[in-house]
């Protein structure tokens, strides 16, 4: 799904933004720099700034569910949160244009679900029960997507019966139609430094959504299928730029969270 490590470096950009916000909250000024595969965050004394985005870090999650209602206000704050040098944010709230994006999402979803390698990779990351989730401490926990938790030996044989292309397409259609809007992030260049910048913008968006009491989820199929990505860029009118991240947002329900590894499991000290 991520052959050129695009999503990987966007994810590292999300982590970088968390570090920047957390540093400010304890009186440090963070200065990230990128050199090849490495992101270095230098720290120096600065003012204490505890933002609503920082406070949202522990509770932010992607909510893969049908939303309800259209929030009033907040769009200006979401646009401001996305502001990052070299990154542009395209907000879509018009129902006709949302319907056009739905078409691209469904096309991409169909391509992916017909791809055996993609499906094998996706299933390998699914955690069907609490026991599986606790053992792995990663992956996509079934209850976090609104599904029942079942033992893996039961869920895996049944998966193909219920996890179908038509069923998933219908679910994505309903989910997106229930959303207040869509945002597409695109960078000025297709390189790792810009992908990290997209990640920082993406994370601030997610944190601001959370601070406003709203929900969001990724609908990245149009940017993950290479042949479709070019068509999607043409529809958006962004020239040769690559659409990087697609998200929907709106008012929605609380769902169980996927597990997160504790810091000591991911930090290596010399």
Characterization of the model:
There is one protein chain. By secondary structure, the chain is of the alpha+beta class. Helices cover 47% and strands 17% of the residues. The protein has helices spanning 6-25, 52-56, 75-82, 95-113, 116-124, 130-136, 152-162, 165-177, 192-211, 221-224, 226-236, and strands spanning 28-35, 38-45, 87-92, 126-127, 140-141, 181-187, 215-218, 243-250. The strands form three sheets. A four-stranded antiparallel beta sheet has the order 3-6-8-7, with helices on both faces. Strands 1-2 form a two-stranded antiparallel ribbon. A hairpin with a 2-residue loop joins β1 and β2 (38-45). α1 (6-25) packs across α9 (192-211) and α4 runs antiparallel to α8. The longest helix is centred in the N-terminal third of the chain and has 20 residues, at 6-25. The radius of gyration is 19 Å and the shape is globular.
Strand content: 15-25%
- Helix/strand order, N-terminal first: HEEHHEHHEHEHHEHEHHE
Approximate shape:
globular
Radius of gyration: 19 Å
Annotation field: number of helices: 11
Largest sheet: 4 strands, antiparallel
Q: How is the largest sheet built, in terms of strand order?
A: 3-6-8-7
- Detail the poorly predicted runs: none
Q: Share of helix among residues? A: 40-55%
**Overall strand count:** 8
Q: What structural class should be given to the helix and strand makeup? A: alpha+beta
Terminal CA distance: 33 Å
Average pLDDT over all residues: 93
